[in-house]
Amino acid sequence: MTEPITVRAAVLDRPGSVTRSETLTLDAPGPGEVRVRMLASGVCHSDLHVRDGEWERPGPLVLGHEGAAIVEVTGPGVTTLRPGQLVALTWYAPCRRCAACLAGREWLCTDSSSVRHRLPDGRTPLRRGDGTEVLPYLGIGTFAEAATVPVEAAIPLPDGIAPDAAALIGCCVATGVGAVTKTAQVEAGASVVVIGLGGVGLSCVMGAALARAGRIVAVDRVAAKLERARDLGATHAVLAGDRATTDAAVRAASGGGPDYVFEAIGRPETIEQAIDLLPPGGTAVLVGLTPFGARASFEVFPFVDGSRRILGSNYGFAVASVDFPQYAALHLEGRLPIDRLVDRRIGLDELEDAFAAMRRGEHVRQVIVF
Q1: Residue 341 domain flag
Q2: What pTM was estimated for this model as a whole?
């Protein structure tokens, strides 16, 4: 029988507190579980929402939900994975029993253990030295040297993909590319606007290029991010300033008004802006997640009169077991340049500094390398 091991991890006692590096005990995998050794973990704005207390979560908690790892040990009954395989971790492991899962809509699973921050049997595999339970965020807790996760959360990837690119497939790439290609199903030749050029927004840009959109307009307040967007397929770039000037520039760049606007920040003001930019027949796709309780509004008559649409897109409608390997294959073919999203690699002890940089709007994707 495999014994527990000790791992170093970034622990958040409660939302709004400071993360601290601790040594924890990690249980061996049980039936239907695997232990993975983490190679890389992206630092996502969702982690910052929890760190800053904008999303209430239980604690203590090991943050992180965008990880790539190597399978180390498989639990009883696991036949689909083997030690040594590279996997990307999905933060929404499907139960595969509910009506949504059975209909092939795993992103709408109603009984995922991920939302309870526990394994499917209800336990947590992490403990402090005094026996205190520590929860893995979304069931995977990737800000740790290793994790014990349900087999449904570990998706094998093809050989040849770098760990940091594999990690990003697990969240920002699936969320952004999927929002374009799966949620909105953008047609070739369509005009697309992307507001906000973090990892998710730039993944929307990559998705629009993959879908062969005609005009791809990138919008951000940071000029360097606009250059990165052009490198990833944007045809036009708008440096955001005051609302009226920005909207006029976006409409001009998109040929009079975009067919699709992707909001990838999660702020009420930019959500309202995305809706207001729509011409008749246009679609706003809301991808960014707001703090709890945030509300946005729009004028109803022109929205209905112009047959406009709003789509919510969580996780890019991901079916991880199908989509993750496809995104990896597209990357290896040179059609999805995921590696260009990574602009800073850090150690686990630099996490608080990474959060501070995110608050300042710096960097596209920071990745913890183990």
Answers
A1: yes
A2: 0.96
Q: Rounded distance, CA 51 to CA 18, Å?
A: 7
Does residue 322 fall inside a structural domain?
no
Per-residue pLDDT tens over the stretch 121-154: 999 999 999 999 999 999 999 999 999 999 999 9
Number of other CB atoms surrounding residue 279 within 10 Å: 15
Same domain, 266 and 365: no
> Per-residue pLDDT tens for 290-328?
999 999 999 999 999 999 999 999 999 999 999 999 999
Residues 281 and 224 in one domain: yes
Is it the case that residue 76 has pLDDT exceeding 90?
yes
The domain that holds 238 is classified in CATH as 3.40.50.720
184 and 306 within one domain: yes
**Are 309 and 190 members of one domain?**
yes
Residue 52 reports pLDDT greater than 90: yes
Domain range enclosing 98 = 5-156+337-369
Are 229 and 123 within one domain?
A: no
Cα separation, 114 vs 195, whole angstroms: 29
Task: Specify the number of domains making up the chain.
Answer: 2
Q: Tell me which amino acid residue 356 is.
A: A
Over the Cα atoms of the chain, what is R_g? 20
